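Example with several molecule types.
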Amino acid sequence: MSGLGELAPLLPLLVLAAGALIVTLAVAVRRHHGTAAALTAVTFAATAAAAWAGGGRASADAGVLFRVTPFGLAVVAILALAGLAVTGLAHGYLRPQAGRQEEVYVLLLVAALGAGALVLAGHFASLFLGLETLGVGLYVLVASLRERRRCLEAGVKYLVLTGTASSFLAFGGALLFWERGALGLSGLAAGTATPIGRAALLLLAAGLAFKLALPPFHLWTADVYQGAPAPVTGFLATVSKGAVVGVVVGQLGAARDGLALPLAVMAGAAMIVGTLLALLQDNLKRLLAFSSIGHLGYLVVAYLAGGERGTAAAGLYLAAYAVSVLAAFGAMGALSRPGEEREEIAAWRGMAWRRPGIAALLALALLSLAGIPLTAGFLAKLWVVTAGLDAALTTLVLLLVLTSAAAVYYYLRVVLTLFDRSGEDEAEPAVPLAWSTRATLLLLAAAVVVLGVAPGGLLAALGS
Amino acid sequence: MSLLALVLLPLAGGVLAWPLAARRPVAARWVCLGALAADLALVLPWVRGGGGDWLARFDRPWLPELGIGVRLGLDGLSLPLVLLTLVLGALAVAASWQEIEERRGLFHLCLMAVLSGVLGVFLALDLIFFYLFWELMLVPMALLIALWGHERRRSATLKFFLFTQAGGLLMLVAIVSRALAASEATGRLTFAYEGLLEGGAAALPPWIAVAFFAGLAVKLPAFPLHPWLPDAHTEAPTGGSVVLAGLLLKTGGYAMLRFGVPLFPEAAAAFARPAMILGVAGILYGALAALAQTDVKRLVAYTSVSHMGFVLLGVFALDATAWRGVVAQMVCHGLSTGGLFIVAGLLQERLGTRDLRRFGGLWHSMPRLGGLATVLALASLGLPGLGNFVAEILILVGTFRVEPVVAAVAAGGLVLSALYSLRLLQRAFHGPFVGEAIPADLDVRETATLGAAVLLLLWIGLHPAPLLRSSGPTLDALLPPGAGAREPVTAAQARVGADPESTPAVAIRAAQAGGAR
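Resulting structure tokens for the full complex:
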């Protein structure tokens, strides 16, 4: 049985798909950077609105392939807003770059479409398709500044490793089908108690852990983060990882029991490895890359906690992490010039006295990532801690707290560098800020604070 | 509502002073002082009140999903500390009048933000809200050290932030565990103070209580969690040191009385003795370390470790008399050590060094500073007639009834404090003059700043009754049942029936009913 009515819950995905086509056509007819960016921004905004508006309804299957839940729609809305922010940042970032850049926007939309399909996937096929669509968009995006060697290297690295991850996933899906004769995600717990079912789950987990950069599958992160252009790194960190978190928390809850031990080990390893490696970095992008491994570990704690509280914690943490990390990459991208990104921590010495606005934004983003109160990061961490302790995950929560304390060291080091008096008089090349960058950064800063003070609306949408 | 205003007024003053400072620095300073004066005017009507009631409450939901609210309350325990905050805040602004010449606007914003955070800690009655202020004052404090600090400010800032943040996060885990345990008993998750007092502590593993107290002990600081303190205090600018030593340390002691013991009564009783021994270790270690210092600020910083050892000792004596002493000690140490840090700042401003070996004979050129410093140092050594004597004697008497041996050893700290205080005075103000240029004596502003601290110490030393009467009933209500059965020694001054039957929850609920009028 099928009909147009069945597609109605998928409106956000349809908007995204239509937007991708329109931008493609617009670019084919006439290349104009501003128009492409504006159309993309409108598409993302409309997607977020459609997802938000559909959030009140109860969970429903849309065909065999998709399952639309309030949590899933809330995550789609978060990802669409992250996409909107990336578009705003990319507009200012790409304008002074040489060459034709309009394709970037098409790819952003296509990758976001994959991300949306992934979040709402109710079937292994849509999960795989979503993941691949997202991945294919990202290979090109990561390497989109073709004249930069490191950019190309990052693209190739990402391509090879994502391909590996996909093959894990495909093999896991095949085993799942062998065991159960069905590929729907809803009844995943049934029929996975056998050795083959267990192996299938483990392979699925490994494939998704690649995307999330959970150890031992984390080795690509730093290089790809560093190589990709700053707005694309922001997209990778938020939309790509967020979509995987969305599908894991929203659709794969049934797999929790079967995977509790390996996931707990991976989460613990992620927190420790991410924090320790981040302590050693002198490069802000690599620092954020390693710290993201730790943050994903925290998200896995929320997933393992499960229940209403754990789901809300995961959604809130995802949103908080997204706005903070986008603000950080936005600040970095804003001061970058063609061919040179402002990624060395030393290059930010005394920035608070030269570009107070940008420095304040970066400081705010880092304090939020460190979990200081009145920023989004604090409440998100509070929710995860509460959910974790409620589910008696004491060891993981203690690990979370200890690594957070250590993380304060590397975040604070950067913040203190920003305020270092010795860098006050260093020459600062005048990099004018595009209005789009300025507006996006202001909105991101506002979002960091609003989520840290009044997250009620988001929590309601997440179904808590 | 006025409690929220009380917390936010200093911050508002700082925000106002920020842009003003670039063009009219003097006006910016007066704005800060004005904000603190306005705050004081808000508090004064409550000073006459007292008893075990809440003098004022403020209660609004904030994050209903987890039962977190904006809950503030003022009672006889928080009142003296709020007053201390406002007085020391004003002293810190005054002490920075000439010292801070760069980025005055940001300095005042940070200073006033710290004061707002401290006030929030003293007034918060929701544990998450309390934690929020607890953490929130770290950021501006760290900036104060990092931007206007002395030579090794960067490492001092990192050390300070890391210690307190690590302690804070452990405390957060304990808070959440405690609330979850209480919610299992009551079926409703809340972080409200009264809600948590209703039960749930007994079911928790002991490490939760240890984590909570450890978080507080870092800030106090208790030996051996103190290593951040000497660095932070030494490297901070004068105003920062005053606020750090005078106020931030007090938040730890206050939170032990307000939250630590009432929320974990069994655990507090169980490790009372080891905690008291740590307190004594802090008293002796701090005093001995102070004897070995040549840097004036470092010396004063180590005396803080010693004095805060008395606070830890008194808290875990779990005795009504000792607790009165703890409150008095927090107020008096704030004033005397705050004053001594101002003295150190003035000396550094005039002589360009903090090295005790390069001072000497300053009395002749600076009799006013010498006189005031002498009174402050004597207060610090616990001379009768000054506030610190009252405080330490109450703590020792209270402890003696519980642990005579521990109290006797702790009294040895008083001897050492005489040694380091007199050594400081002798080195700086007596003997031959060793400097080149003759430094100027204090002007009117500086005399008034230090004079205010000295007068308050004298007042508390000679007439401690108002202070003890204000906090007494609240403290009796907070004491674990059983411990309150021992009549306070100062009963003549603060006679309030310490009902052996009363548990904190019952007493506070009664107090709340009274406050609702």
